[in-house]
């Protein structure tokens, strides 16, 4: 794994229903797994020789925050070149197709989008700077 990706945190809107929050983290996780090189470890074998597909090689805390916290993280992270960010909006969650999502998103600026989740990956200090004051999602 690249040294710059030492930590990855997920932040979910605290007002989302549990099922929607889980869907948000799942969607963010898919993008993180695809775009963050080295975050997934190699497959492992158990004592019986059965193979278990690799899972994340670093901890992934799930945090909660206000909608304004999510927007702030997205905007601040845009100015941090060593941080990978993927966001998820209510526009994405409510769209019936990727085409609908892209056209609806194109109608709003970054600061106006209704963020419901964000994943931030980078060095520990950078991720902590963006998310360190937020509580764990419980």
TrEMBL record:
InterPro entries documented for this protein: DUF2000 (IPR018988), Pep_tRNA_hydro_II_dom_sf (IPR023476), UCP033763 (IPR017021)
Originating species: Streptomyces mexicanus
UniProt protein name: DUF2000 domain-containing protein
Gene3D superfamilies, per database record: Bit1
Matching Pfam families: DUF2000
